[in-house]
Write a structure and sequence with these properties.
Number of helices: 15
CATH architecture of one domain: 2-Layer Sandwich
Order of helices and strands: HHEEHEHHHEHHHHHHHEEEEHHEEEE
Distance between the termini: 67 Å
Structural class: alpha+beta
Strand order of the largest sheet: 1-2-8-5-3
CATH topology of one domain: Uridine Diphospho-n-acetylenolpyruvylglucosamine Reductase, domain 2
Radius of gyration: 22 Å
Shape: globular
Number of strands: 12
Strand content: 5-15%
Bound molecules: protoporphyrin IX containing FE
Largest sheet: 5 strands, mixed
Helix content: 40-55%
Length: 451
C-alpha cells in the first residue's frame, strides 16, 4: 500500500526554510524524533523528503540508486567543478568513475602515502620549531597541511615553487563555491560582481597552471607518482581512449575541492576531541609510541607502519561518527518511487543525513559520548551497515575514502607522537553545518613538544 508521507507544517510560501536555516541540525533532530521514518519538508520552494532509517538510506544510495540523481544543489557547483566526478551523473559519471577508480586502488594509495608522510612530517617539524608559547590555530594549520598534501599528491613536482600560488587560487575557487551554494541570491555569472571578478581571476590562474602541467607532461612523456599521472594515462577498456584535457582539469579541481576541506575539518574535530579526553589521548600516544617510537626522529617511518595503528583508526572513525564532515547528502528522484510505503514523486529531493544516523540512540547508545571502542573489532555486531556513512554509500561512495583515512592516520599519529595537546579554555565548540560540518569557531590548542 502506498501512502503520502507526513508533511511538517510550515509557513505560506517559505515553508520550513527559515526554521532549517536558523538551526539545521536542531531542526533535523527534532524532525527525526517526531516522525521516525520519513517526513516531507519544504525548503526554498522545493519538496524534500528526509529519510531517517538506515535501511531506507541504503535503498536510496544503493539498492535503487539509478532512480536517484544529483539534486539541483550540484548544478550550482558545476560552475566551479565542471563535469567532474562529484557533479556529473548518469552514463557520463559511470564512465569517468571507471576511468578514475584505479587511481584510488590500495596499491596506488600506498604510493601517494609516501608523499603524505613526507609532507606531514615536514609540517610537524615546522610546528615544533615555531613559537609554542601561545596557543596554535589548529583549524588553520590543518587547512594548510591538507591543502599541501592534496596539491602534492595531484601534481607532485610540477607544482614545485608554484604550489603556493596554485593552492591559493584553488582555495579561492573553493571558498567562492561555498559562498555561492549557501547564498540565497545567485547573481548572474556574467555580472562584474566582486565575487565574479575574483572567480574569473582565480579560474584563469588555475586553468593556466593545470593545462600547463598537462601540456608539459604530454610533450615530455615524463611519468610521476601522482594522481594527475594516473588520470592522464587512464584508458577506456573498450576504446582505449584517454580523458580530454578539459576533463582532466575538471577532475583535478574536483579532487582538490572534495578532498581537502573535508579532511582538514575532520582532523580539527579529532584534535579537539582528544584535547577534551586526555585518557583517550594517552592511549593513542601509547599505541603510536609502540609502533613509531617516541618523539621526533630524523628518519621517516615507513608507510606500512601507519597501517598497523588500529586504535588510531578507531579514533578517526569515532571522530567522524560524532562530526561527519559531509553531514547531509541529497538526491533527486528521477521517476516516481516509494520508500517503504511512502510515495516519492518524480523531481522531488530526498535528503539523508549521516549526522542524524550517527547520533541515533537506536544504533549508538549514549550517542554524544566520544568512545573509539565503538569501532573495536567485533563491536559493530548487529549494527546496520548504513548506520555509519561518513563517506556515503552505494556506487557514489567517496572515491577518496582510503586516501582520506590514510592521510588522517598519518597526520594524527605524527601529531600526537610529537605533542601533548590541551584546550585553552572550557568554552564549548559546536558544529556549524555549512557545506562541511565545521566547528563554529577556529580550534586553538596549546601544543607542548614531547621529547
Ligand atoms: C574525511 C574526508 C572525506 C569525507 C568525509 C568525504 C565524504 C564524501 C561523501 C559523503 C561523498 C559522497 C557524496 C554523495 O554521495 O552525495 C564523497 C564523494 C566524493 N569524494 Fe570524498 N570525502 C573525503 C575525502 C575525500 C578525498 C581525500 C578525496 C580525493 C582525493 C575525495 C573525493 C571525492 C569525490 C571525487 C567524490 C565524488 C565521487 C562520485 O560521485 O563518484 N573525498 N566524499
Amino acid at each position: 500500500m502506498e501512502i503520502i508521507a507526513p508533511v511538517h507544517p510550515g509557513w505560506p510560501l517559505v515553508g520550513n526554510t527559515l526554521a532549517v536555516a536558523r538551526d539545521p541540525l536542531g531542526m533535523f533532530m527534532k524532525l527525526q524524533r517526531q516522525y521516525d521514518r520519513v517526513v516531507r519538508i519544504n525548503i526554498g520552494g522545493r519538496n524534500q523528503y528526509m529519510v531517517f532509517r538506515p535501511e531506507d538510506v541504503k535503498y536510496v544510495l544503493q539498492e535503487n540508486h539509478r532512480n536517484y540523481g544529483r539534486s539541483p544543489a550540484f548544478r550550482v557547483l558545476k560552475r566551479f567543478l565542471g563535469e567532474g566526478l562529484l557533479t556529473s551523473d548518469g552514463d557520463f559519471w559511470r564512465h569517468q568513475r571507471r576511468l578514475a577508480q584505479p587511481a584510488f586502488h590500495r596499491q596506488k594509495i600506498t604510493v601517494l602515502a609516501s608523499t603524505m608522510v613526507e609532507e606531514s612530517a615536514a609540517w610537524v617539524a615546522q610546528l615544533r620549531q615555531g613559537d609554542l608559547s601561545g596557543p596554535v590555530n589548529m583549524s588553520q594549520a590543518l587547512m594548510d597541511v591538507t591543502m599541501r598534501i592534496v596539491c602534492k599528491t595531484l601534481f607532485s613536482t610540477d607544482a614545485g615553487q608554484r604550489l603556493d600560488g596554485l593552492s591559493h587560487s584553488l582555495e579561492t575557487l573553493n571558498v567562492l563555491a561555498n559562498k555561492t551554494l549557501l547564498s540565497p541570491i545567485k547573481w548572474p555569472t556574467n555580472w562584474p560582481t566582486p565575487n565574479n571578478v575574483r572567480y574569473n581571476n582565480a579560474r584563469r590562474q588555475v586553468d593556466a597552471l593545470i593545462y600547463g602541467f598537462i601540456a608539459n607532461r604530454k610533450r615530455t612523456g615524463t611519468r610521476h607518482d601522482d594522481l594527475l599521472d594516473m588520470l592522464l594515462y587512464a584508458e577506456d577498456e573498450d576504446t582505449g581512449q584517454r580523458m580530454p584535457d578539459a576533463q582532466l582539469r575538471d577532475e583535478c579541481v574536483t579532487l582538490f575541492t572534495a578532498g581537502h576541506e573535508t579532511t582538514a575539518v575532520s582532523m580539527a574535530w579529532t584534535m579537539y576531541l582528544l584535547a577534551s579526553h586526555p585518557a583517550i589521548l594517552k592511549r593513542l600516544q601509547t599505541e603510536v609510541a609502540t609502533v613509531l617510537g617516541t618523539g621526533a626522529s630524523e628518519s621517516l617511518p615507513p608507510v606500512e607502519a601507519f597501517r598497523t595503528l588500529p586504535y588510531t583508526m578507531q579514533v578517526v572513525q569515532e571522530s567522524m561518527r560524532l562530526y561527519p564532515p559531509a553531514w547531509a547528502m541529497s538526491r533527486m528522484a528521477l521517476a516516481d518511487d516509494h520508500i517503504g510505503p511512502f510515495r516519492i514523486p518524480k523531481g522531488d529531493t530526498v535528503v539523508v543525513s549521516p549526522y542524524l544516523l550517527h547520533h541515533d540512540p537506536t544504533n549508538w547508545p549514549d550517542p554524544d559520548r566520544f568512545d573509539p571502542d565503538r569501532f573495536a573489532p567485533g563491536a559493530d555486531a548487529g549494527r546496520p551497515a548504513y548506520a555509519y556513512l561518513p563517506f556515503g554509500g552505494g556506487p557514489r561512495l567517496c572515491i577518496g575514502n582510503q586516501f582520506a583515512l590514510m592521510e588522517m592516520q598519518i597526520l594524527l599519529a605524527l601529531l600526537v607522537q610529537s605533542f601533548d595537546i590541551q584546550l585553552i579554555d572550557g568554552k564549548p565548540i559546536r558544529p556549524q553545518p555549512l557545506i562541511t560540518l565545521r566547528p563554529n569557531r577556529h580550534i586553538w590548542l596549546r601544543l607542548t613538544a614531547r621529547l
